[in-house]
Amino acid sequence: MKKARYICLITILSLSFFSILCTSHTLAADKPQYGGTMKIIAQRGPTNIGYSAAMNFADHTPGVMYAERIMDVSVKGDLLPRLAESWEYSPDGKAITFHLKKGVKFQDNTDFNAEALKWNLETCLEARAVPGAKYIASFDVIDDHTFRVNLTERHNQIIYGIWRPFIFSPTAFKKNGKDWAVTHAVSTAPFKVVEFKRDVIIKMEKFEGYWDPDKPYLDKVEFRIVKEPATCALMMKAKQADFWFQATAREAAELRDEGLTVITGPSFIHNIYPDSKNPDSPFADKRVREAMEYAIDRKAMSDALGFGFTVPINQLAPPGSAGYNTDYEGRPYNPEKAKRLMAEAGYAQGIKTTMGLRAIELDKATVIKNYLAEIGIDVKLDVCDPGRYWGMIFRNG
After folding, report:
1. Distance between CA atoms of residues 259 and 248, nearest Å
2. Are residues 295 and 359 in the same domain?
3. Which pLDDT tens digit goes with each residue over 104-124?
4. Is the dihedral of CA 149, 151, 70, 169 positive or negative?
5. 93: containing domain
6. What is the pLDDT of residue 19?
7. Cβ neighbourhood burial of 86 (10 Å; 0-12, 13-18, 19+)
8. How many helices (H) and strands (E) does the chain have?
């Protein structure tokens, strides 16, 4: 039995999860009411709230509460104005010019302008925190509110890389340094962070100098980390929290049955990432990777573990998205074919490997481990802390 290199699990192979939000309040379409404090709970929170160049995925998810980007993205994937009011491509497609909103202040009362945007993007570019960075040639400040990105070649996805970083005050960073910035968010957002305790709480208050005079509606927001799902569920039942952000499927189903409101929306396509980069890895053989897909019954997993909140899929684009191909049949559950592919690849005696995962994925990983064992892939589960886990994927490759 040959030993294979590492594989990483992002929840479930080709299974689309929905982001789940439970609320203890009745949602109405009435005119928004001003004032009050919103209390949000979640099982995990950010480790970096104010330095875009070092943010990981887990930092970006709650970041929209206390930071802004130059654009927003709709549920359909369309880019919408935010700190940039508009943008256009040059005729040859090798430059994108952004027209920035005027009169925007950071929470330290310094100006958001093209120079501030340039500093933010350059910092992220140097840290390789901008997807598609190799296609970005340079940045130009045309004037205070006009900014240009020059590309090495025409590329229609680079704008999404430019969209990704949150924008923070260069002045605050230069005055206080990187370590300080990681725990202090000085942004242009409607809420400013007044207290941050990692893995405990983020307290936010209304930013009186926000560029939209009609927002925010709330006076304060509390984002509290509560690691145990059962505790989160009890807090929701007792109305000790207004929202449970990214609730677990099992508890969300129970709360739904008790009359609480559950809001779902498209989230991630969760995959197994095998080490196909190294030529000496069995996963470099396409037949082994296909065998893994045939070996896993995604529908059964979705039915058993998703509680009505997951959809088994056979391609990267989930149903309802612009890239979904209704004519693609994919590779359905077929363990016998999986075994044949393993034999054709020269691994009839099986292989051993290690799968990296986060603790919240252990139940799903255990099911996958059992499926893969049926075709001769002996998986050792390695539960990683978030830093090591995301580092294996995005930094080490």
Report:
1. 16
2. yes
3. 999 999 999 999 999 999 999
4. negative
5. 71-173
6. 52
7. exposed
8. 12, 19
CB neighbourhood size of 120 (10 A): 22
Residue 349 token pair: 């005696």
Q: Render pLDDT for 180-209 as a digit per residue (tens, 0 to 9).
A: 999 999 999 999 999 999 999 999 999 999
What single string gives the DSSP state of each residue in 53-109? GG--HHHHHHHTTT-B-SEEE-TTS-EEESSEEEEEE-TTSSEEEEEEPSS-B-TTS
pLDDT tens digits, one per residue of 309-365: 888 888 877 777 778 899 998 899 999 999 999 999 999 999 999 999 888 788 889
The domain boundary, picked from 124, 151, 173, lies at 173
Which whole number is the average pLDDT over 167-189? 98
Domain boundary, last residue among 173, 192, 221: 173
| pTM recorded for the entire structure | 0.78
- In a 3-state reduction of DSSP, which class is residue 285? coil
* Predicted pLDDT of residue 14: 41
Residue 227: count other Cβ atoms within 10 Å of its Cβ. Answer: 13
In whole angstroms, give the CA distance from residue 60 to residue 5: 29
With a CB cutoff of 8 Å and minimum separation 6, the contacts of 305 are 12, 249, 363, 364, 367
Residue with token string 């509290």: 224
